[in-house]
Write a structure and sequence with these properties.
Strand order of the largest sheet: 8-7-6-9-5-10
Number of strands: 11
Helix content: 25-40%
Radius of gyration: 19 Å
CATH architecture of the largest domain: 3-Layer(aba) Sandwich
Largest sheet: 6 strands, mixed
Distance between the termini: 21 Å
Order of helices and strands: EHEHEHEEEHEEHEHEHEHHHH
Shape: globular
Structural class: alpha/beta
CATH topology of the largest domain: D-Maltodextrin-Binding Protein, domain 2
CATH superfamily of the largest domain: Periplasmic binding protein-like II
Number of domains: 2
């Protein structure tokens, strides 16, 4: 049986592949733990180390624009409304989205999908342009040599998930946008935030995100399955095998969430939170983790935002960004 070297974290449908409950037809998966997701993405972008990987669409699109031979499968591994990930210092005087203009905003990486999504949705839904903000990043981007705009500076290369919260509490930044920091209610329950100092920008996040979903009819994709062109050339049947395995795994995963909720076991808090977020989407009547055309439509919207905000050059892609499945 042919082997595929893969890097998928232990959450969502990927968990069912990791524990061998579901396997791609004709292939054995060799799982590699890469530390943080950003570290795994860096290894893929720089060395094409894996056959398939969990990667942010922003890193994927930016890497492709630089000629890295990557192709995506339309499989969302993580999807979330970025409104839930936007926090501020109470002393910053942010009472509405327009108050974000001109503030100092902290993000983990410049190519963070949560940041690009939030910028795009703030402009689309609230006519708020954050070009005038001062930006601070805390982790180096997976793509080497990313040129930061003049209003962006790297504060530190500290990889800890809650570094941005420390910066909020200290007053170093006014606002944080960060998926690893978790949604407000998760961080509050874990004692990671001081509610006397920090608060969510969208106190009515449930209402706001429901309205956003009604407009777009998708949950913004934050991570998806990415492969390298050489894997498709050498093992053309692998893409269909992985796609079918994830589609089957998603069905079992969603059924398990509906029946039993989140399975509690030894995992990092952010991995458990991913599953809890999917339960919350289901409770709202929203199907999590798009596969197929919906995932492609979400990524196409994100791509447009990346071009608009100069994360990507304006020229159209020279080849399809998604695998053509037989």
């Amino acid at each position: 049986m042919a082997a595929l070297k893969v890097a998928f974290a232990d959450y969502g449908p990927a968990s069912l592949l990791r524990n061998r409950e579901i396997a791609p037809h004709g292939f054995d998966l060799e799982f590699v733990d890469t530390g943080t997701p950003v570290q795994g993405m860096a290894r893929m972008v720089r060395d094409l180390e894996f056959d398939f990987i969990d990667m942010s669409p922003t890193t994927f699109l930016a890497a492709r624009s630089r000629g890295v031979p990557l192709v995506a499968l339309p499989i969302a591994l993580y999807a979330e409304f970025p409104h839930m990930l936007l926090w501020c210092r109470k002393a910053a005087g942010i009472r509405a989205p327009r108050d974000l203009i001109g503030k100092t905003i902290g993000v983990r990486t410049w190519l963070s999908p949560a940041t690009v999504w939030m910028r795009g949705l703030l402009k689309t839904e609230y006519s708020v342009d954050l070009d005038s903000a001062t930006w601070m990043t805390t982790v180096e981007d997976p793509i080497p040599g990313v040129v930061l705009p003049v209003n962006v500076r790297r504060s530190t290369t500290e990889p800890r998930a809650f570094k941005l919260l420390e910066m909020l509490h200290s007053g170093e930044i006014d606002v944080a946008i960060d998926a690893l920091t978790l949604q407000w209610h998760h961080a509050l329950a874990l004692g990671k935030v001081d509610p006397g100092t920090v608060e969510p920008v969208f106190g009515d996040a449930l209402e706001v995100t429901n309205a956003s979903y009604r407009r777009s009819q998708f949950v913004p994709v934050m991570h998806l399955v990415v492969t390298k062109q050489s894997t498709l050339d050498e093992k053309p049947e692998a893409a269909r095998a992985i796609y079918d395995a994830f589609r089957e795994a998603k069905g079992s995963y969603i059924a398990g969430l509906k029946e039993h909720g989140v399975t509690r076991r030894a995992r990092e808090a952010w991995l458990i939170a991913r599953d809890e977020d999917n339960v919350e989407l289901l409770e709202r009547g929203i199907e999590p983790l798009a596969i197929g055309a919906e995932a492609e439509r979400s990524v196409a919207t994100l791509r447009n935002y990346m071009v608009e905000f100069s994360y990507l050059p304006a020229q159209p892609p020279t080849s399809s960004e998604f695998v053509t499945l037989p």
